[in-house]
Amino acid sequence: MKSPASASRGGVARVCRYLYRVPLLLVHLVVFLPLILLGMLPPWGNVRVGDATFGDKVVNWWSGGLMWIFGFRLRRIGQPLQGAVLFVANHVSWVDICVLHSQRMMGFVAKREIAGWPVVGWLAARGQTIFHQRGSTESLSGVMDAMVERLRQNRAVGVFPEGRTRGGRDVGPFHARIFQAAVETGVPVQPVALVYGAGGNAQTIVAFGASESFFANFLRLLGEPARQAEVHFLEPISSHDLEGRRRIAETSRGRIVAAMSGA
Asked: CA-to-CA distance for 168 and 260, rounded, in angstroms?
């Protein structure tokens, strides 16, 4: 149990972090975000810069900057595949999308509620996000069609096969149906392990607390101490090598769990 003195120091430190992070966040949103949106527009947004377009690069930069403001010191292990690929990751928090976008541009499959979240929802709508209404078979069918279309256009798609966050304590089962798009198009699946804190000791801190809203989580994380965040791009899985989407789902989850255990 923390002593009153240590609790007070923690409170003072949090206030100090808000004092410099809030102005940085406002500058990042008010000044740099419009510039990023301009950078995504044609013709310059379509100019190739190395292995990506200029528009993709500015999204990487802006997302990485946002995570830096929140105190996440990103470390990438492995390399993301280029071209059409289905990225699958464990799901901890809304932060996951920004962390992944800092490394590689991809269109995420996300719950429709995210579209209404401040800042993140607005950005998601402009970042190739495919929104899904939970519990709707019709919506899921439309999501699958959109995923297949994007993969056939040689674009990347990112999904969280658990379907929801789980408080950061464990990695839930992966829903196999979401892997059907990779099977249909024959594109590789690349598992990605997201590890927050040394050895994953901040998974539960980054995750949503019980009954915690997005806004409350957003504000809480803005005041948290700086910590490492690792993005492990793991060995890809060929959708031709394994029989069926269930085997691909199980193999993907297994590789992510193994990487998190060894972090």
From this structure: 12
The predicted pLDDT at position 241 comes to 67
Distance of CA 90 to CAs 99, 128, 193, Å? 12, 20, 6
pTM of the model: 0.89
Cβ partners under 8 Å of residue 87, min gap 6: 80, 100, 104, 106, 156, 157, 158, 159, 189, 190, 192
186: Cα separation from own chain's centroid: 23
Mean pLDDT of 182-196: 96
Q: Are 81 and 236 in contact (CB under 8 A)?
A: yes
Element (H, E) at 130: strand 130-132
In a 10 Å sphere around its CB, with 0-12 CB exposed, 13-18 middle and 19+ buried, how is residue 14 labelled? middle
Torsions phi, psi for 123 (to 5 deg): -70, -40
What residues make up the domain containing 152? Answer: 71-261
pLDDT of residue 134: 59
Identify the CATH number of the domain in which residue 135 sits. 3.40.1010.10
Number of structural domains (the chain) is 1
Please tell me the distance from the alpha carbon of residue 182 to that of residue 157, in angstroms, as a whole number.
Answer: 10
**In residues, how long is the chain?**
263
Q: Measuring CA to CA, which residue among 39, 144, 132, 58 is closest to residue 101? A: 58
